[in-house]
Write a structure and sequence with these properties.
There is one protein chain. With about 220 residues, this protein is of the alpha+beta class. The chain has 6 helices and 6 strands. The strands form 2 sheets. A 4-stranded antiparallel beta sheet has the order 1-2-6-3. Strands 4-5 form a two-stranded antiparallel sheet. The chain is elongated, with a radius of gyration of 25 Å. The N and C termini lie far apart (about 80 Å).
Length: about 220
């Protein structure tokens, strides 16, 4: 082997070659981040569509039956004999009504799916618990849920609320808040669930820097 070849082997990569490699890595990472941003944006649009769809279904149901879904006392007579009736007080304040809201909406044809109206599967008003077949799934394998209460962290009065379900990334909820409301986690119609304030917000705002993948949002009616 010549001295030239031995020197070339010992020298390793030149600065130009290292620069080229770094540029290629940068381009790859840029493409990955851009692709992830596009995926997140598509997910936000999808979830926004689901939430506004639920709201539209709620309002259409109320307009037709003069009662809110889940609470409709004559649901078994005017919708379907399989429907679980509510008590008609205008609030989703029992387990049977929290489960019945999805069953009544589906049986009346306002949302797609089949729901069993099982009070045993829907959890308490303060929890985000539910099961497949009783509540619809969100895109992150949590469950959308409606309940009467004050789970929105900045609220001081009870209302019928729509919970996004657990496993929602904080960045997704932050974008949703900007699209649906004021973009602030502790104010407005869309807020953070009070049980997730410490892990998903900082100084009253969505803590996007934390990249927390298990947050819950609350949309108040």
């Amino acid at each position: 082997m010549s001295k030239c070849l031995r020197y070339r082997a010992a020298a390793g990569f030149t600065l130009v070659e290292v620069a080229i490699v770094l540029v290629i890595i940068g381009l790859i990472l840029g493409g990955v981040f851009k692709g992830q941003a596009l995926i997140d944006s598509a997910r936000v649009r999808s979830i926004q569509g689901e939430l506004t769809g639920f709201q539209s279904a709620w309002l259409s149901f109320a307009d037709r039956y003069r009662a809110i879904p889940g609470d409709f006392a004559r649901a078994d007579h005017q919708i379907d004999s399989a429907a679980t009736p509510g008590n008609g007080n205008g609030r989703l304040d029992s387990a049977s009504e929290r489960a019945g809201v999805w069953q009544q909406l589906a049986l009346a044809g306002f949302i797609n799916g089949s729901f069993d109206g099982s009070a045993a599967n829907v959890g308490s008003a303060g929890s985000v618990d539910c099961t497949a077949g009783t509540c619809p799934k969100n895109p992150f394998n949590g469950f959308y849920k409606m309940a009467y209460g004050a789970q929105a962290a900045g609220s001081d009065s009870d209302a019928n609320e729509l919970l996004t379900g657990r496993q929602m990334p904080v960045g997704i909820l932050s974008q949703l808040d900007t699209r649906l409301d004021d973009g602030v986690a502790m104010t407005g119609r869309f807020q953070v669930h009070r049980d997730y304030v410490s892990t998903c917000t900082r100084n009253g705002n969505w803590d996007n820097a934390s990249a927390n993948a298990n947050c819950v949002g609350v949309l108040r009616n």
